[in-house]
Design goal:
Distance between the termini: 50 Å
Oligomer: single chain
Radius of gyration: 23 Å
Strand content: 25-35%
CATH architecture of the largest domain: 3-Layer(aba) Sandwich
CATH class of the largest domain: Alpha Beta
CATH superfamily of the largest domain: Vaccinia Virus protein VP39
Shape: globular
Number of domains: 3
Structural class: alpha/beta
CATH topology of the largest domain: Rossmann fold
Number of helices: 11
Largest sheet: 7 strands, mixed
């Protein structure tokens, strides 16, 4: 399948339906080269398979190098991640264990984002619900599974063959607890290729092509046909809401705006908002979202630009344009270690250009969603960008993904989102 191609869509009632209870005689065993230190067990960490060779997707017991039990995980010899550990306990995970994991994830959200989960906005006779992350892979003890809720639709991404094989029972458990009506499940090309299988997509009967959600009272259309990932970036929710107070009455430039999250929530009380993205469909949806909210009383004045971020910011600098607030939220620029140097250069160039556009005393809110670009490395990039731009900045705050995107201490690389708020200091241009 060519890059960017859509996976074939399976029949609406054909979710993979592997049982969550595994027969005891079907469980394999994997011995590690050392002690277990992470939920993600790579090829080089596996010493050997003991006894029956497991099939890809099977549940296996994990033993350390001294053959002491170290938990259970999902096996796939075709993946660079040979085993994704699911549990540390002695007994093999069964249907009750899976239900308990999901209940724990929901309990965590009820204790941290109860207001978000209960939020809605009524427009006429229609009530629009929230957008939030329900399952965050390793952070919720379910490596290889992402689930977002958009009103009454569950948008699911699978990154693990074993999780995808069991997605039918998992979705049913979620529906029972959340009362949602629709679902869309994707095992996209990149993830499927990494797991050595064919990309797949499944949708429930009558699953809408779009959903309308609200975030802090601002309405957004989520397009399941053209959207990236699960369709919307819930991880930036808290950063968008924080930005609203900093941009009130000011000019805002939102670079790599996608469908308008920062521009519409963070810039709802701004004097003027300019949103820029290379993706023509994303810009069109951002404009549609702005019109919906202007119809319901939004005050901001919006400008939309479909352009390459590098070229557009260079032109703005050439024209002498400056902004009180600049938001830079590029897509993932480093997908593998082989892409690291090229991605770092792109981050440096983007931030150098963005820094030149900030008014003295103004704010730059810059982001990296590349897990391989750790916070300390990102700070080095910003240091170099500041020097290259000829502008001085102080760090005002660090932030990350919203609280419904938890990070497990034994998988620090899952802390992928870095948000750095920089206040420009120093002299006039």
């Amino acid at each position: 399948m060519s890059a960017g191609a859509k996976p074939e869509r399976a029949g609406s009632n054909r979710l993979p339906d592997r049982p969550l209870d595994e027969p005891a005689d079907a469980l394999g065993t994997v011995r590690l080269t050392g002690r277990l230190g992470s939920a993600l067990i790579y090829d080089k960490m596996v010493d050997r398979v003991l006894g029956r060779r497991p099939r890809d997707g099977d549940l296996v017991q994990i033993l350390d190098s001294e053959e002491k039990p170290a938990g259970w995980g999902l096996y796939n010899v075709r993946s660079g991640i040979r085993v994704r550990r699911m549990s540390r306990r002695a007994a093999a995970p069964d249907s009750a264990w899976w239900a308990a994991r999901i209940d724990d994830a929901l309990a965590f959200r009820r204790s941290t984002i109860a207001d978000v989960m209960a939020s809605s906005r009524q427009v006429g006779q229609k009530v629009y619900g929230p957008a939030y992350r329900v399952i965050h892979a390793e952070g919720d003890g379910l490596p290889g599974l992402i689930v977002d809720r958009y009103d009454d639709t569950l948008s699911v991404e699978a990154f693990s063959l074993g999780l995808h094989q069991r997605i039918g029972p998992i979705v049913r458990l979620l529906e029972e607890r959340l009362g949602t009506k629709h679902w869309i499940v994707r095992f996209d090309e990149r993830a499927a290729r990494a797991e050595g299988v064919t990309p797949q997509e499944h949708r429930s009967p009558d699953c809408p092509k779009r959903a309308m959600v609200q975030e802090d009272g601002v309405l957004f259309l989520v397009d399941f046909e053209t959207g990236h990932k699960t369709g919307f970036f819930c991880d930036q929710r808290e950063n968008r809401m924080k930005l609203a107070a900093s941009s009130a009455g000011k000019t805002l430039l939102d670079v790599c705006c996608y469908t308008g999250g920062f521009g519409l929530v963070g810039g709802r009380d701004a004097k003027q908002v300019t949103m820029v993205d290379l993706d023509e469909k994303a810009v069109a949806l951002a404009e549609e979202n702005a019109k919906i909210n202007q119809h319901f009383g939004a005050k901001s004045k919006f400008k939309f630009v479909q352009a390459d971020a590098f070229n557009y910011m260079r032109q703005l600098d050439f024209d002498g344009q400056r902004f009180d607030v600049v938001v830079l939220d590029p897509p993932k620029l480093i997908g593998s270690r082989a892409e690291f140097e090229d991605g770092r250069r792109k981050y440096s160039d983007l931030n150098t250009l963005a820094m030149k556009l900030v008014e003295p005393g103004g704010l730059l809110v810059t982001h990296s969603c590349s897990g391989l670009m750790v916070e300390a490395e990102f700070q080095k990039v910003l240091k170099v960008a500041s020097w290259r731009s000829g502008r001085e900045f102080r760090i005002e705050r660090f932030a990350g993904a919203a609280v419904d995107h938890p990070v497990r201490v034994d998988v620090p690389e899952s802390s992928y989102l870095k948000s750095v708020w920089l206040r420009r200091t120093g002299e006039e241009d």
